[in-house]
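thread from #wetlab-drylab

HS: before we spend reagent money on co-crystallization trials with NAP, can we at least see a predicted complex? here's what I'd submit
DV: go for it
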Amino acid sequence: MKSMPVVEAHGARIPILGLGTWDLRGRTCVRMVEEALKLGYRHFDTAQIYENEAEVGEALRASRIKRADVFVTTKVWHTNFHAGELERSVEESMARLKLPYVDLLLLHWPNPAVPLKETINALCKMKARGFTRHVGVSNFTVKLLDEAVKLSPEPIVNDQIELHPFVDAAKVIAACKRHAIAVTAYSPIARGRVQGERTLENIGKAHGKSAAQVSLRFLVQQGIIVIPRTSKPERLKENAAIFDFALTGPEMK
Ligand SMILES: NC(=O)c1ccc[n+]([C@@H]2O[C@H](COP(=O)([O-])OP(=O)(O)OC[C@H]3O[C@@H](n4cnc5c(N)ncnc54)[C@H](OP(=O)(O)O)[C@@H]3O)[C@@H](O)[C@H]2O)c1
């Protein structure tokens, strides 16, 4: 893989392609992170709820790639949003990852039962304590995003949302642009559903690419970060081969 394009936001430099790890467990997870590193992936997305932080950390440490050369995201689950619980849960995440810090710590899902101010302040405290280099959110709507930006003593650098050719998130993307927040697309190949979709397959044929590659290219060509997940080593390569072609204006439309 040639050097990976990055998306910049408030000082964060996020590789535009990462490996999603939801549902990758145990040795499969270790193996996929190791294989991805060998292929040149330098961005990994995990979360407390995925129960694989230990495996992601294990593979990263075993690779002996310099910590500064890899971008690692983890996410705080919404049941840990009260101040003390958030801090404790992140300390536990770090103990599982066995890394000195993560690059990005996200609030995984909004929780209206806990005041956002309390949660955001606790999140930013984790940055001040050196556990993370940057903070952000996930699944935040425009209203919540505006509120988070207003409340946060630290820049919100990222909103991770569901994004692929079958969903329209134009309003959230516009809000992110307004706040100079990077957008990460989760489920960027619609959990595999892009495969076999006629329009995407036809566009792919014109470029010698698969529907999955067209879906990923559609997103990165808009400056959106993608974190496709696979449990198959051969698909790691396929999902990374998206920087050697460009979609035309009509194809993007
Ligand atoms: N923030 C959040 O709330 C949130 C929510 C959901 C996901 N995420 C993150 O986003 C990541 C990606 O999302 P996702 O796992 O939901 O879905 P996804 O990446 O869109 O799709 C994964 C599915 O597609 C298949 N696949 C992978 N590459 C393929 C290819 N080239 N051609 C055809 N099928 C392919 C995989 O099967 P095989 O394993 O058989 O290849 C798997 O079933 C997650 O792993 C997680 O890190 C975050």
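DV: DSSP finds ten helices and ten strands in the chain.
HS: ok that's useful, forwarding to the group
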